[in-house]
Amino acid sequence: MSRLRFLAKFVADFCVKLEQLNLYTLNVPKEAGTCETSHPEQRGAADVSTRTYWLDLFSPSTWQEFLEAGATVSGFRESRWPSVQQIKPGDYLLWYLTQVSRVIGVLEVTREPYFDETPSIWKDEYFPCRVNVEVVATVPVDAAVPISELSSQLSFFQNLTSPHAWTGRVRGSPTRWSESDGEIVTLAVLEAQAHPVIRPVDPRKLAKKPPVVVTRIGPVTVPVDDEPSETPVAIPEIVTEVVQEATAHTEIQWRLLRLGSDMGLAVWVARNDRSREYDGQPFSAMPRLRDALPNQFEEATNRTVELIDVLWLRGNAFVAAFEIESTTSIYSGLLRMSDLVAMQPNLTIPLYLVAPDDRRNKVLTEVNRPTFSRLSPPLKQVCRYLAFSVLRDQLPKDPRVVRHLTPAFLEEFSESCEIEML
Predict the structure, then answer these.
(1) What is the dihedral of CA 422, 172, 369, 336, to 10 degrees?
(2) Distance, CA of 110 to CA of 72 (rounded, Å)
(3) 221-245, pLDDT tens digit by residue?
(4) Which fold has domain 51-203?
């Protein structure tokens, strides 16, 4: 649907709503949107007063498959059938691309929901609960609307109990959204289509995520042993690998400390790492490095917090916590984060798991294990993945620029550890 056609229809629907409210009657020529027609059955389209907005999640792969199939059918999991049955012709589906957290388009439903197990569209799953759709508006992924940019307008970003609590509204589809939120997103997509703003997307965020299994505690991963079988190796090779991992860990630790310090924040390095140095620069000489942490918790939690690789603080308030996983097993930091969430379930500190780029899927798979999914809140809902290359290559390094940043900027450079159920 062209933008002009959409706007004409939007005017028509708005006119009908005014007539229904008995405010006044507008008389606009048919070419401008047929405002004089006040009955939906006469207009051949759903009345705006009964339109419902639904979230429709796509992964990068299902998005591509949807486009290749003609962009005329959207599908959902069989377990979503009760919700899908509530969708009706004229409703709008807000086309949300997971992994990059952007709205990429708006779809209009053109027929009643139906059940079809024909595997003709998606390769990995059937998504048998289907609706026929027509594209209202769409933009390329690098011009799509980041959901975070609408945070001041969308209702579910208000009065958050934790920094990532809003993600509960984008964890499954179809999910009914309020009319006001739906209209805000629809107009934002139309604006992006008319006046695109290019925001490059890290290709790694478009990579496929590990598969999940639906259980009674929610979607989880079942990790397999993807490590190479043990083979005899010479002692010098083992020593070299350990040294390289230790060096990478120290480097990333230093980069996080420097970044936080340049932002004007107080920083903390794990108590057992304070004697380390990177590139001839001792951690102990880092500006704004704290000698002690505020005692906000009981002894067990305080001891756990003191061992977290890097912390950022503003005054006595924690604003971010980082665990660096440079080793192959990637367990120590995960367990520390898990302990922290278990002991302090109402903790609102943004938690980041920082790991090499080639360990991304390993991190996501481990975080989504049943063990961590049983926590309240589940670890995957409170942790984000941050790649080594982001800290090395993508972040500004000039202190004159960095000092104007806030910790929230990492949201754009990091990735949710949660694997959304499409």
Answers:
(1) 130
(2) 9
(3) 544 444 443 344 444 444 344 445 5
(4) ph1033 like fold (3.10.590)
